[in-house]
Amino acid sequence: MRAQVLTPARIKPRPEFAAILKETEPYGHGESDDLGNRLNSWFDALMLQSGVNISPPLMLALCVCSALAVGGAAFVLQEDLLATSFGALIGFAAPIAVFVVLRSRRQKQMTEQLPPAIDELSRAARTGRSLESCLRIIAADTPAPLGVELRWAARKLDMGLSVSQAIRDLPLRTGLISMRVLTTALSVHEQTGGDLVQVLDRLSRTLRERAQFLGRLNAMTAAFKGTAVFMLILPVGIIGFYMARDPNYVSDLIDSRWGLRTLIVAVVLQIIGSSVIVRILSRSQRG
Q1: Is residue 277 part of a domain?
Q2: Residue 136 sits in a domain of what CATH number?
Q3: Which of 22, 78, 120, 254 is 20 to 30 A (C-alpha) from 214?
């Protein structure tokens, strides 16, 4: 009797699962807490939370190309090494600044969409449906950008994962504290049970009150934020103005001993002040 060779089953690729299984190639790793790894993790989170389908390596290549273009233009116009370095730095930071703005707008939209989505989830739960079915319903009805993330979680449910596993990455993908509260509430309900409708109603009311408070806070601190941004841009603008008037301005300043010392102190103080201001602004915008 001829022995039969069993051929292992091959899983056919499915287009609806392609985005889930695709490697993202992140730069950060969770096992290290040094400064370099934290910067890499921040860069990975920026790419993920901006909503633009660009991988971190491609974004880094875009920053390098932008730095070469702006630095090359500065060298052609000024023929000065310091101006070239200054232009390359601006060119490298420009794409990152654009993605920071895109992430801020996307998070603002998702913050506004989250309370109505929770209300719809509560209405679906009142009909007696399971939590998985309710999540699929709001994922299909919620528009982008929040609907994109909810449909991502719903696709994980279709793969057989539990609710806790499907929504576990939503706080990281959105960068919202409100989403972390929602995922925690749903995970606790899945494990312990309870009145899901009451929990969702309270959560929706709390998020609306929090959004109103943040709106009043942003209105009261708008002048401070504008002043902080102006303080960050003003020194760069002044240097650019003098370099445009006199290409040898910075070179003559460096040739002077006191001018070089003053420039080094000014750059160090500007870096320290900028880091403090950016940290304050980022904490005020977090949520």
Answers
A1: yes
A2: 1.20.81.30
A3: 120
